[in-house]
Design goal:
The chain has about 120 residues and is α+β, with helices and mostly antiparallel strands. The protein is built from 2 helices and 8 strands, in the order E-H-E-E-E-E-H-E-E-E.
């Protein structure tokens, strides 16, 4: 099949209109305070999952939640996905701490996120 596997979906980012209000809702849902709390991103860690809140969809203009698949080799996975018919919407780039992210759109318009931690 393919040479590079995934480690599953461990991160889901949600675009939010009101970061403070959303932070309160997600803290109540998850039962934990945010681990990252800035004006441009709020992130929670709960039971091995990372839930992120992105005001106004962030620079990537998200309009719906995006699930991020954790992969060992993001470039290899991007190549496999495009060979299978997906379109790259956001090239792999470093978002800090050695973490690479990218997004693709499948043939039905669904956005799939990829994350590689170095």
């Amino acid at each position: 099949m393919t040479s590079s596997s995934t480690q599953g979906i461990k991160t889901v980012l949600h675009p939010v209109a009101d970061l403070a209000a959303a932070k309160a809702v997600y803290a109540a849902l998850l039962g934990v305070a945010p681990q990252t709390d800035t004006s441009y991103y709020v992130g929670f860690e709960a039971e091995g999952q990372h839930i992120g809140l992105v005001p106004s969809g962030g620079p990537q203009g998200m309009t719906a939640p995006v699930a991020y698949w954790h992969v060992l080799d993001i470039e290899a996975k991007l190549a496999e996905l495009t060979a299978a018919g997906a379109s790259v919407t956001e090239q792999a780039h470093d978002v800090g701490g050695g973490r690479l992210v990218a997004t693709v759109t499948d043939i039905d318009g669904n956005v799939l996120g990829l994350i590689q931690d170095r």
